[in-house]
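Q:
Got a chain?
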Amino acid sequence: MNIITELNPVINTLKESEKLDYIRKIIDVQQQINDLINENHWLKKEKDRLDRKLEVWNQLKFEDDAYWLKGKSDGMQGPYCPKCYGTEGKLIPMVKNGEECPNCSYSRRKIRL
Protein backbone atom coordinates (compact mmCIF):
# COMPACT_ATOMS: atom_id res chain seq x y z
CA MET A 1 0.00 0.00 0.00
CA ASN A 2 1.40 3.35 -1.04
CA ILE A 3 0.25 6.01 1.40
CA ILE A 4 0.77 8.82 -1.08
CA THR A 5 -1.36 7.10 -3.73
CA GLU A 6 -4.08 6.58 -1.13
CA LEU A 7 -4.17 10.32 -0.45
CA ASN A 8 -4.81 11.28 -4.10
CA PRO A 9 -8.61 10.73 -3.98
CA VAL A 10 -8.78 12.89 -0.86
CA ILE A 11 -6.85 15.65 -2.61
CA ASN A 12 -9.13 15.47 -5.66
CA THR A 13 -12.23 15.70 -3.46
CA LEU A 14 -10.81 18.69 -1.63
CA LYS A 15 -9.90 20.38 -4.93
CA GLU A 16 -13.49 20.06 -6.07
CA SER A 17 -14.73 21.57 -2.83
CA GLU A 18 -12.09 24.33 -3.01
CA LYS A 19 -10.55 23.55 0.38
CA LEU A 20 -7.09 24.85 -0.48
CA ASP A 21 -5.84 24.94 3.11
CA TYR A 22 -6.49 21.23 3.48
CA ILE A 23 -4.84 20.49 0.17
CA ARG A 24 -1.70 22.34 1.27
CA LYS A 25 -1.64 20.43 4.54
CA ILE A 26 -1.98 17.10 2.75
CA ILE A 27 0.79 18.03 0.32
CA ASP A 28 3.01 18.90 3.29
CA VAL A 29 2.22 15.54 4.88
CA GLN A 30 2.99 13.79 1.58
CA GLN A 31 6.41 15.49 1.49
CA GLN A 32 7.10 14.47 5.07
CA ILE A 33 6.16 10.87 4.21
CA ASN A 34 8.49 10.95 1.20
CA ASP A 35 11.30 12.28 3.39
CA LEU A 36 10.72 9.51 5.94
CA ILE A 37 10.70 6.85 3.21
CA ASN A 38 14.01 8.17 1.84
CA GLU A 39 15.55 8.35 5.30
CA ASN A 40 14.38 4.81 6.09
CA HIS A 41 15.95 3.55 2.86
CA TRP A 42 19.25 5.27 3.68
CA LEU A 43 19.20 3.91 7.26
CA LYS A 44 18.67 0.35 6.01
CA LYS A 45 21.64 0.67 3.64
CA GLU A 46 23.79 2.15 6.41
CA LYS A 47 22.80 -0.67 8.78
CA ASP A 48 23.77 -3.26 6.15
CA ARG A 49 27.13 -1.55 5.64
CA LEU A 50 27.82 -1.46 9.37
CA ASP A 51 26.73 -5.10 9.77
CA ARG A 52 29.27 -6.14 7.12
CA LYS A 53 31.97 -4.07 8.82
CA LEU A 54 31.17 -5.66 12.19
CA GLU A 55 31.27 -9.13 10.64
CA VAL A 56 34.82 -8.49 9.38
CA TRP A 57 35.85 -6.98 12.72
CA ASN A 58 34.62 -10.09 14.56
CA GLN A 59 36.82 -12.26 12.30
CA LEU A 60 39.98 -10.21 12.86
CA LYS A 61 42.77 -11.02 15.26
CA PHE A 62 45.73 -8.74 16.00
CA GLU A 63 48.95 -10.69 16.40
CA ASP A 64 52.62 -10.15 15.53
CA ASP A 65 52.04 -6.47 14.65
CA ALA A 66 49.42 -7.25 11.99
CA TYR A 67 45.79 -8.22 11.55
CA TRP A 68 44.83 -11.76 10.58
CA LEU A 69 41.45 -13.05 9.37
CA LYS A 70 40.11 -16.24 10.83
CA GLY A 71 39.89 -18.71 7.97
CA LYS A 72 37.10 -21.18 7.30
CA SER A 73 39.26 -24.20 8.19
CA ASP A 74 40.74 -22.91 11.48
CA GLY A 75 43.63 -21.31 9.59
CA MET A 76 44.48 -17.64 9.59
CA GLN A 77 44.65 -15.48 6.47
CA GLY A 78 47.01 -12.55 6.41
CA PRO A 79 48.87 -10.63 7.52
CA TYR A 80 47.00 -7.39 6.82
CA CYS A 81 48.30 -3.88 7.47
CA PRO A 82 47.12 -2.52 10.85
CA LYS A 83 47.78 1.08 9.83
CA CYS A 84 45.59 0.91 6.71
CA TYR A 85 42.83 -0.90 8.59
CA GLY A 86 42.96 1.60 11.44
CA THR A 87 42.96 4.73 9.29
CA GLU A 88 41.04 3.69 6.16
CA GLY A 89 39.14 0.58 7.24
CA LYS A 90 40.80 -1.37 4.40
CA LEU A 91 42.34 -4.82 4.68
CA ILE A 92 45.55 -4.46 2.68
CA PRO A 93 47.61 -7.68 2.41
CA MET A 94 51.23 -7.24 3.45
CA VAL A 95 53.91 -8.15 0.85
CA LYS A 96 57.59 -9.11 0.96
CA ASN A 97 56.97 -12.20 3.09
CA GLY A 98 54.21 -10.40 4.97
CA GLU A 99 56.51 -7.68 6.27
CA GLU A 100 55.54 -4.52 4.35
CA CYS A 101 52.36 -2.77 3.25
CA PRO A 102 52.28 -1.82 -0.44
CA ASN A 103 49.75 0.92 0.28
CA CYS A 104 51.34 2.90 3.13
CA SER A 105 54.82 1.38 3.48
CA TYR A 106 54.16 0.24 7.06
CA SER A 107 56.78 -2.33 8.05
CA ARG A 108 56.45 -5.00 10.70
CA ARG A 109 60.22 -5.49 10.48
CA LYS A 110 60.91 -1.96 11.75
CA ILE A 111 58.75 -2.55 14.80
CA ARG A 112 60.56 -5.77 15.73
CA LEU A 113 64.06 -4.30 15.36
